[in-house]
Every structure is written in structure tokens, then in C-alpha cells.
Amino acid sequence: MYGGGNTFEHIKSNGLENEDPEKLAQFEARIERGEKIEPNDWMPQLYRKQLIRMIEQHAHSEIIGALPEGTWITRAPGFKRKLALMAKVQDEVGHAQLLYSAAETLGKSREQMIDDLINGKSKYSNIFNYPAFTWADSCFISWLVDAGAIVNQLANARGSYGPYCRALDRICAEESFHLKYGHHCVIHMAAGTEKQREMMQAAINRWWPPMMHFFGPSDKISVHSEILMRWKVKMGSNDDMRNQFLDMYVPKIWEIGFTIPDENLRKNEVTGRWEYTEPDWEEFKRVINGDGPCNKERLAVRRTAEERGRWVREALLAPKTEYVAPLA
Amino acid sequence: MMTNTEALKELIYKMADDQLILGHRNSEWTGFGPLLEEDIAFSSMAQDKVGQSYALYQILNDLGEGDPDTVAFMRNADQFHNSQLVELPNGEYDFSLVRHFLFDTAEAIRFQMLTNCSHEPLAQLANKIKGELRYHTMHADIWIKQLGRATEESVSKLQDSLDRLIPYAIGVFEPSPMEDQIIEDKIFEGEGKLRQQWEEAILVVISKTSLNLPDLSLVKPVYGGRVGQHTEHLQPLLDEMSEVFKIDPTADW
Amino acid sequence: MASLRCHFYLITYMESLDPRVNRLNLSTTELTSKAPLDQLGTYEVFSQLKEDKPYFHVGPVHAPNCEMAFLFAKEQFSRRQTCTGLFVVETRNIKVSVFTEGEDTVYNYISNPGELANGNTESFELFHLKKRGKQHEYIGTIEASSAEVALSMVKSEFINDKPVYNIWIIKTSDIESSQDEDKIIWDTLPDKKFRDAIAYKAADKIKEFKERQ
């Protein structure tokens, strides 16, 4: 689950002056035609670097994203929810595997990526730095955070890099159950007891601000990345993605009688765009740089899992096998 | 029509409780596994177990017991009939792997025997899930063989867990007071026969490793689980499992 | 405009909301010495969705050997979709051709069959990439003395067909596949409705809710 919005904040120079102009032209023409780039094709350094960064962050978001929902696996109420949540969180881990594999085709090993995650060098979707206080919080995540991720993923599935597109095709197919399951949970809370409704409304109130951050900073304060749009690495502006999400899901939230804690939230019928209170981008920056409620815990969990699993991996490596990058 | 549904229900309860508790324990590894691919595989098997327990509680429901959610989420520890083996808290991965190996080997044989059960729904279920169990035992065998011969550390860890878990594993075969009835009614060939086949099966795998199996005839089994006597670990597990459900057991979640 | 505040700063560090996490006894040190990179081998996975359909490449797994690669592949690539067969092969054992695009087929770059080599032949499996961005598809088996010879043997068959953009060719003996008796491991997949989007019908509940208002 990944919003994508904050990946490209640090492009300084293109470095394109060092690239062979003829090869670059062919590369861009291929993308222009709608053809996919495959691992063995020539590609500019910037393309490779930005893709690794983006896919890697997406992978990290999946494995970290498994944690707030995972909070409720052992406490899911009833068999149906128990089985579904187990399957859903498992899927997140599976998506991480697919995405690390896609990034590996570009030349970075999975172990290196996981190392960078644990050391704080690589980022992941900010929304997972918040805690899932109640069962209703897990319902919110399963429905709306997944919904946001799907908006992003559907866009990226039309991107230019073959392995990433293939991974996303698989992911989108699996996500359809996640979205339905999440929506199903929230509706049951809405149509349930007074306590259930209150729990769900409280969760919505808590999670709305991070959800508004999900697609990254607003376009007017974001770094411009026309070249990444041209290369079909970035598939839409942050505001466009956010608007699409609001358009699809705010009516569905209102339909079941919940309120959203933003009195300025409304659709401008003339422009077709949603208006809302400008999210607090200072808070976003603070949290993504380590100062959120769960950052330390999330990384500590990953670190602990890696450390405690080390003896297992060492036992698997005897006799030693040779690592190669996946083919596709 | 069964002359003695009590014996049948007793058998199904202990199987369902075993599957539920072990599936629950194994789901605690989701997201924390030693390797992504293995995390995914272990989670699938946990789901299979919980799914199997759900199917078994449904058979019980058809025999007059409560609905599965209530039966699973509202009973207290002394009303559960799982073996103590499955309620022990997860240790390191060696602990969970060894438990998976010991339990799943028995479970596969048990369900194989149950394909001939005189109670049709149970026989049908046993037939249906053969494939799942085949994967579970394949998985366990491959892992035990791999880690049981790999490094000094892996062998010693596995050996420790094996030594610790064997008495509890034999506790799975705690004979029922209605054992004779069960055999006579052709519900099941009995814990004795099951234990025998299990001992042969685990020996086959262990002998391919550097691990040692103690003389099983000398091991004092840990009994009690089948009659509601449990370790201090079960009630906290149940409390956790039912935490949200109990907010309002009548609610539709 | 007032900006929204987040109401999350209530929990103390290391006391998690997740009971499973609390049982992990998280290490509290921030810095860890750099772990030596431990890398497992790479295996490509192929699956067959239905009896009469060809095998397709679905993705890679990391594993220490073929047996484990198969175990992992089964759950990673066939836990949600029924499948009738699965196989894995070490990535290193796949020979890859050049990539082409547009109207240009890879077979333009395959040499014509020269003298057929004498001596031992073995079996090779051939896969085509028919569209960039899609997956490699199983085409057939060829008996030849080497992968290169195998390709030149089939060149005439494909050179005038629709373009092939990439070829994978694998020695049959390098493949670790599911056996017929293993097919039952996929038996209960269709029953796992809790993983199907279609099992989550919400329309009635929404209707019920609206009627109550």
C-alpha cells in the first residue's frame, strides 16, 4: 500500500548531460510509443535510480503496512474476520516480495534494500507511522488506505517499467478483495450498535489527517518532476491522485452516515475539484523524518525480525548459494 | 445415524480446538518471519488451520452444538479440549517449526484415518483437505531436514525444541474415556494406532538429520488438555482472541 | 485556515498496541552493526492455470535450493488462483536471448541451422515473450545438442510469425516441477471464499442502514 507522493522530492540535477543522446532519444521514443522498458534495455542513470527508489519505497510500505493491521490479527472478532484479516496481511507481505523482486531487476539486492530500511536510509509510506488504536482503525486502514493505494497503483500499472507493471498487475488483482473486505467491515460498523458506530467515527476522525497526507505534498509546494512524468515513472500529480480518491470515496463515507473532520471539505461543482482545509505539511515532514508516534516501533520490529531470523537464513545458506538478480 | 454422538462430538471438539489454537499461534508470525517467502508460506498454513477448525465447528453445530463464533470466542480455558502442545507460546522460529512438524505429521495421519469415518460429513471434510495437509507435511519435512543438518546452531536449537516438545506432542494422543466406543462405532481407529503411525513417520524424517529422537516409550507424556486442564498460557490467549468479540457478542462485526 | 491536528501522541515508546509486538521484546538500541549481506539463490517460477493452458512465467523467489523454491513458489504464486501445475528453475540456468521491439523479431538474430551437431542431445524447453511488459509463455520442447542449436532448429517455424521479443530456453533437467500426485495441494483453493472480492456483498447492508435512518 503506497501513496507515492513523497518519492521524488530530492531530484537535484538530471545528470542527463552525461548520457548518450542517441540512446536517450531511442529510449524516450520507446516510452512515447507506449512500449515497456525491460531489465536488459539501456536506460539513463536517473531513470534507474528513481525507479529503484520508488519501487523500493513501495516494497517497504507493504512490509511496514502489514504492521498496523497486523495489530488486530490475533483479536479479529469472529471466524470470517479472522480468516480475512490473516489473508489480507499475508498479501501485504506477498506484495513486498513481488516489489522487492521488481526492484532487484534494476540491480539492487533485496538484502541491501532491507538493510537501508532498517537503518532509516529508505522511506516508506508515512501513514504507517500512526497507531491502530482500535478494531475500527484496522477497518479504516483496510478500506480507505487500501483505496488510496489502489488509486496510485492503478496509475503506476500503466507506467513504463515492465517488471514493476507486472508486479502491480498481480497486486491490483489481489487488492480487489482487500477493498471489498474493508468496505464490508466499515459498513457493518455503521449499521451496527451505537458503540460500533462511535468506534468507527472516532477512527475516521483520527485517520483523516494522515489520509490527506497520503498522496504527498500539494502540487504547489512539491518538487516538479516533468521528466519523470515524461518517462512514465510518475503517472499523475499528487493533487490529481488525491482528488481522484476524494471523488471516489468521500460520497461513500457520507453515504453511511459518518462525518469527516473537515468542515471545508466539499466538491466544487463548477471545477469538479474537491476543496478542503490545507493539510499540515509541516507535520507531514516531521513524521516522515522520524518524529511520528510509531516510527521507532515500526523499524524496531523489522530490525528484531531480521536479527531473530538471522540464524535461520544462515542455516539456509549452508551450503552457500549464489545470488543473481531476477530476470523479469 | 450415530448411536453415540457424545464420542463423536468429543473427538471433533478436540480436533477443532487444536486447529484453532495452533492456527492462532502460527498467525502470530505473520509479518515477523525470518524470510519473506517463508512468512507467506507459514501464514497460509495458519489460515488453513483456522479454516479447518471453522469447518469442524460447523459440523459440531450441525450436531447440535452452538454456532462456531460463539463456541470459539466465548468459552473459557477449562472448557477447551486442545492439547497443551498447541497453546504453548511461540518461542523462536525453531520452536514453531518443530511444533509444526510434530503436530502436522499427526494431523495428516489422523485425517487420513478419518476419510473412513462412519460420520459422513467428517469423512467428506477429511477427503477435501487432504491436499492442504500434503503441503503442510511437505513443508515441515523439508524445513526439518534442511535446518536439522545445516549449522551447529540450527541443529542445537532444533534439538532443544524437540526435547522440550516431545512430551507435549505425545500428549496429543491422550486417550479418550470413550476410546473403545469411538473405535467400535468406526468413527476413528483410535489414539493408540495414531500414535504408533506417528512415531514411525517422525522417525523417518528425523533419521535424515543430525537430530536425535529420545526413546519415546520412556517419555512421560503431558496429558490434561483433553479434559480441560491447561497451562497458564491458554486463558491469556483466549482473552486476546476474544477481546473485540466480547465488546458485544451479539454485534455483527 | 486552521490546519488539522493529529491526535496520536499518546503512546509511550516501546509499549506497543500490538500484543504480538510486545511479546517480541524489541531491541531498544538504535544502531546496529551492519549485517553481512546474506543472499539466497534466485529461482524463476512458472505456473499453469488450467490443464490445457500453457505454463507462464509468474515471478521469482529467493530460496536455498529447488525443493524450498517450490515450497515458496506455491504459496507466493498460487495461493489465490487455482493452478494445475507449477515449476521452478534456478535463474542462472535460464539462457536469455536479445530483446527486440516493434516489427523486429528475435529470430532475426538467431543463426541458421548449420551442420547439426553430432553426439548427445538433450531436452530443452522454449519460452517466448510475445509482448513487452507481459510474461514469457511456454511454447514447446526441443531435442538438441545445445540451446543455440535448439533455437536454430525452430527458427524457420517462427521467423515469419508475429514478432517474438525475447526468448528463454531452459534445459528440462534443470526444472523442478510439481508431480501429478501433488495436484491435490490446490484442491481447496476455490473454497477459500474469504479471499474473494465477490464474497463481500455490501449493497444489502447499505440499504438496510439507509432504511433505518
Q: What count of helical segments of chain A does DSSP give?
A: 11
Count of helical stretches of chain C: 4
- Major beta sheet, strand line-up of chain A: 1-2
Q: Which homologous superfamily in CATH is the superfamily of the domain at 94-175 in chain C? A: Phenylacetic acid degradation B
Overall pLDDT of chain A: 92
The largest chain-to-chain contact, stated as pair and per-chain residue counts, equals:
A-C, 93 and 78 residues
> Total number of β-strand segments of chain C?
8
Please give a structural write-up:
The complex is a heterotrimer of chains A (328), B (253) and C (213). Chain A is mostly helical and 328 residues long. In chain A, strands 1-2 form a two-stranded antiparallel ribbon. The mean pLDDT of chain A is 92. Chain B has one domain: Ferritin, core subunit, four-helix bundle (Ferritin). Chain B is globular, with a radius of gyration of 18 Å. Chain B contains 11 helices and no strands. Helix content of chain B is 63%, strand content 0%. Chain C is of the alpha+beta class and 213 residues long. Among the domains of chain C are: 55 residues, Phenylacetic acid degradation B (Ubiquitin-like (UB roll)); 82 residues, Ubiquitin-like (UB roll), CATH 3.10.20. In chain C, a hairpin with a 7-residue loop joins strand 5 and strand 6. Chain C is elongated. The two termini of chain C are 33 Å apart. Chains in contact: A-B, A-C, B-C. The interface between B and C is medium-sized, with 26 and 27 residues.
